[in-house]
Specification:
mainly beta; three-stranded antiparallel β-sheet; 3 strands; 21% strand; binds zinc ion
């Protein structure tokens, strides 16, 4: 499970927790998010710009 941080704000997507507010259940891998995924806080559009912080 990895945590990915938005390059534009402090939003972090934690794969282990998902994002219930956005409709992604716990365990949803970042790579499994739809291509149209955008940062819910600032609207950064490109998944590849998110920085992977931890992975194990
Ligand atoms: Zn953001």
């Amino acid at each position: 499970m990895a945590v990915l941080e938005c390059p534009g704000c402090q939003y972090r997507y934690d794969e282990a927790q998902g994002d219930a507010h956005e409709g992604y259940p716990p365990g949803t891998l970042f790579e499994s998010l739809p291509e149209e995924f955008t940062c819910p806080d600032c609207g950064v559009r490109y998944k590849e710009e998110f920085q992977k912080l931890v992975s194990d």
